[in-house]
């Protein structure tokens, strides 16, 4: 994944923050878990031996969304992902943990966008 390094951008986009959260969650998955997702959704990968290539294939896929493959993971694994992302990991049902994981990127994205907007209003140009 290539990022533009322009100096003209003054505030991060909300979708960029969501994308960063999504990629952070995917980075916590093991190679075996990523391969499972790649196989399930029949994704093309440059080199299946490289975790970065697996991550890129899953992250760029429109079919392999978090909501589509997180239910395949066990409750304990979902709890580990929540802990790794600093989310509340309480709850007995998988669906509660999945909702937190899927929804947190959007919530975090909106929070960061709002904070950036407020900072731009407060700080002098």
Gist of the model:
By secondary structure, the chain is an all-alpha fold. The protein has 6 helices and no strands.
Tell me the number of structural domains.
1
The radius of gyration over CA amounts to 16 Å
Structural class: mainly alpha
Q: Number of helical segments?
A: 6
Q: Which band does the percent of strand residues land in?
A: under 5%
N-to-C CA distance: 31 Å
Proportion in helices: 55-70%
Uncertain segments are 1-15, 107-120
**How is the main sheet built?**
none
Strand and helix order: HHHHHH
Number of strands: 0
Shape: elongated
Average pLDDT number? 77
Structure characterization notes:
With 125 residues, the protein is mainly alpha-helical. It has one domain (14-122). It is built from six helices and no strands. α1 (14-27) packs across α6 (94-122), α2 (31-40) crosses α3 (51-59) and α5 packs parallel to α6 (94-122). The two termini are 31 Å apart.
Give the arrangement of secondary structure elements:
Layout (H helix, E strand, L loop, with lengths): L13 H14 L3 H10 L10 H9 L6 H4 L5 H10 L9 H29 L3
